[in-house]
């Protein structure tokens, strides 16, 4: 939806086509997301098992191994403005090349969610060989396999370039696709690139989500340990009541917009049937929202409105938990994006303030060596002492990253941390004063 707003200047994606790849662990949500957003989602998946799982689950509505049939389905759905998810069981390179050969431009939006952060060990399947052949070759003939992967990426980006020239908007989904194309030898930087990650296609994070982490908003989540859908529904209701209450308070328009968008999401979440196993939910929220929701959950566990403890957590892709110059901290432009201390400080601070467990690990998202992630889990058992721990830890877990982004000069972060200090007692953060660039230049001259 945001991609439509950003690139096509519309909230109405009816009749617009989004092409991508991957129906795996995370990427599987693309089929459902396309349907919710109201567009024609076309997703290539090389693994029959992965594709069938999403089809059986109902997220992927229809699929074929025949590219002519896929093109026919796209044309029909486009003209009928039908929201539908269409799977192509095959290699995404074949799909892009087929679409690039079509006379008519059939694609408005494009991306890729293969596991390019791990391209040579099963994350990316090269075109021209079968899924089983690839699985054998990556261990039996790793060097030849690597070359096939690189050749495949070169072909994929060439077809994407062709469609982009005809008006398609393409973006990186945070899976290291652009970096791997670059490593495969393709010129991926802009003509006047300011650094070695200034790619000629945008990353969804900076371009679509904007500086959301500076605002302190990120994917807060919770799990109902009873495992019952009833508890999850009740928790949705509680979260919605908390947002309604927060919205009555005084807040800048940009915070209000976030709460309103996220209230819509939580109100509709249950009817979209997104839960496939654990009774869990993700909701974007800021420090004030996360704390208020956690306290309301703990109270609900205490008075048995919820039947068993709730575990709160968040994604690594968040305000404070990850140092990753190719994604989460890519918009920190004071030169400190290449340090890896925020995630470490965050995990240790969370541990000291009462997390039930923490994690600190490399890899994840953009891949090993390019990222450090810190995470936590906290069990809300209804205890009054848990209220204190939740308040203290969530304040650190969000404000740590907002403060760091404020120090690096991100405007929204400065505004957010000044605002948070007014409501959280004991939070004292030094606020940076920006030097007038002209004055600085004159000084050096
Ligand atoms: N943007 C985000 O917020 C975000 C969130 C989660 C994951 N990711 C990234 O997205 C990527 C995918 O995550 P995942 O959990 O779905 O991984 P996954 O490995 O479970 O799924 C990827 C799927 O791509 C398929 N695939 C690989 N090469 C293909 C090809 N050439 N043609 C067709 N299908 C192909 C695989 O068979 C697999 O099912 C990862 O790199 C991950 O780090 C980004």
Automatic annotation (TrEMBL):
Enzyme Commission identifier(s): 4.2.1.49
Region forming the signal peptide: none
Annotated PROSITE patterns: UROCANASE (PS01233)
Urocanase Rossmann-like domain residues: 1-208
Key words, A-Z: Histidine metabolism, Lyase, NAD
Annotated pathway: Amino-acid degradation; L-histidine degradation into L-glutamate; N-formimidoyl-L-glutamate from L-histidine: step 2/3
Swiss-Prot/TrEMBL catalytic activity: 4-imidazolone-5-propanoate = trans-urocanate + H2O
NAD keyword on record: yes
Domain Urocanase C-terminal: 211-417
GO biological process annotation, one example: L-histidine catabolic process
Family: Belongs to the urocanase family.
Listed name of the protein: urocanate hydratase
Organism: Mesorhabditis belari
């Amino acid at each position: 939806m945001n991609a439509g707003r950003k690139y096509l200047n519309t909230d109405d994606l009816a009749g617009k086509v989004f092409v991508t790849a991957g129906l795996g662990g995370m990427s599987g949500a693309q089929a459902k997301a396309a349907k919710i957003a109201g567009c024609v989602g076309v997703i290539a998946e090389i693994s029959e098992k992965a594709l069938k799982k999403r089809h059986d689950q109902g997220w992927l509505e229809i699929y074929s191994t025949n590219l002519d049939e896929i093109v026919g389905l796209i044309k029909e759905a486009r003209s009928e403005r039908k929201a539908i998810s269409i799977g192509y069981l095959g290699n995404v390179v074949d799909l892009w090349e087929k679409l690039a050969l079509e006379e008519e431009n059939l694609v408005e939006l494009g991306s890729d969610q293969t596991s390019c952060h791990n391209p040579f060990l099963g994350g990316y399947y090269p075109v021209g060989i079968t899924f089983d052949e690839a699985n054998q070759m990556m261990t039996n003939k790793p060097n030849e396999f690597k070359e096939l992967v690189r050749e495949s990426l070169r072909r994929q980006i060439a077809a994407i370039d062709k469609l982009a020239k005809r008006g398609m908007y393409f973006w990186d989904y945070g899976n290291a696709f652009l970096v791997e194309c670059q490593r495969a030898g393709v010129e991926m930087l802009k003509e006047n690139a300011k650094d070695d990650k200034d790619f000629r296609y945008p990353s969804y994070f900076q371009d679509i989500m904007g500086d959301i982490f500076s605002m302190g908003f990120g994917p807060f989540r919770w799990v109902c340990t009873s495992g019952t859908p009833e508890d999850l529904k009740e928790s949705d209701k509680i979260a919605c009541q908390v947002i309604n209450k927060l919205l009555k308070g005084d807040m800048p328009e940009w915070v209000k917009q976030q709460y309103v968008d996220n209230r819509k999401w939580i109100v509709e979440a249950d009817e979209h049937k997104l839960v496939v196993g654990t009774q869990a939910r993700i909701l974007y929220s800021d420090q004030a929202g996360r704390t208020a929701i956690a306290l309301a959950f703990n109270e609900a566990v205490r008075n048995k409105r919820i039947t068993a403890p709730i575990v709160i957590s968040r994604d690594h892709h968040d305000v404070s938990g990850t140092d990753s110059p190719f994604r989460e901290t890519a918009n920190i432009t004071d030169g400190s994006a290449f340090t890896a201390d925020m995630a470490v400080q965050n995990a240790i601070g969370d541990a000291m303030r009462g997390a039930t467990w923490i994690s600190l690990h490399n890899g994840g998202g953009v891949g090993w060596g390019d990222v450090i992630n810190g995470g936590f889990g906290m069990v809300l058992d209804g205890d009054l002492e848990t209220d204190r721990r939740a308040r203290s830890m969530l304040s650190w877990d969000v404000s740590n990253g907002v403060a760091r982004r404020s120090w690096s000069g991100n405007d929204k972060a400065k505004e957010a941390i000044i605002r948070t200090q007014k409501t959280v007692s004991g939070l004292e953060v030094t606020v940076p004063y920006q030097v007038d660039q002209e004055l600085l230049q004159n000084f050096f001259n």
